[in-house]
Amino acid sequence: MTLNYLDADIESRRRIAEARWDDLAAARPRLGRAVALQRRTIGRQFDLLAAFATTALPAPPPEAVVLHRLADGIPVLRADLPPLPVDALIPVMVELGRAVSEVSGVPAGARAAVLLARGEVDAARLLALVFQRDEDAVRQLAAEHAVAMDALWLIADVALAPLAHLQQRVALREDEPDSPVREALERWDTGFCPACGSWPALAEVAYGERLLRCAFCACAWRMLTDRCAFCGTAGERFVTVTPDRARPSRRLELCRQCGGFLKVLTVDVPAPFPLPAIDDLATADLDQAAMHHGYRRHPLPRL
């Protein structure tokens, strides 16, 4: 199955990304290395998006299966591992590992690249574990090879995200507005992604609606009420604050129950993949403000 992704659309997103990186690097010099690294990682994601969009994707789960999974609270891509293009992604991960070290100066990325290039780290196992969002298993794999878990996770996560994005679009029938799957998605009332099970990187408020945006596949979904995406707390222990009153479109949701926080951005339209990652980087000051007051990012949910 293929998606109707136009090259012109992907190139338009790439131009938007380049302009935003230029602006961000000029306005926030301290983010220089982070911007430089994101240019390389997301730049590679644009290439992969273009390549995967013109090849046959695995057939999505049957509609009835997707409906049952959504009704049971099971992310639709987590129950069955689709075939992954391991051979095509190994050189991408090697390149990304080298880029991490070249830009950041941290040797862990280069070591991960060497181990993958030599076949000492099982790339198929790594990709499968990251696709299934299994942080504990990747941590064990990293320990087996004396390499930083964060480096292994990052390069596999970046390489897989374009494929995960396309597969969630197919599985959730994004191009079929009248599908029962789209109706079932409206009833999904959980903070983790209905497609892959990741937490949201941020929330966007567009057309008056609060959309959670997956940190991995960029799926967009709504919770039925405004409450903590991580533990479901509402009421007085769940608050929304505006750290900079001169910029009311940038807010923080803070949960005093679980200590989690979520960035909330008011936007004209939801950002298409992979642009939400740039919004995440551009609002790093909100992360710092939340963590300064004792709030934290949660590890991935164990499902």
Instruction: Provide the residue-averaged pLDDT.
Output: 94
The Rg value, from CA coordinates, equals 19 Å
End-to-end separation: 28 Å
What class would the helix/strand composition place it in?
Answer: alpha+beta
Largest sheet: 6 strands, mixed
What is the number of helices?
Answer: 11
Q: What number of domains?
A: 2
Main β-sheet, spatial strand arrangement:
3-2-1-6-5-4
Count of individual beta strands: 6
Give the uncertain stretches in residue-range form.
none
> How much helical structure, as a percent, in the residues?
40-55%
Please state the overall shape, judged from the principal axes of the Cα atoms. globular
Descriptive terms for the model:
single chain, 303 residues, alpha+beta, FdhE-like fold, 11 helices, 10% strand, globular
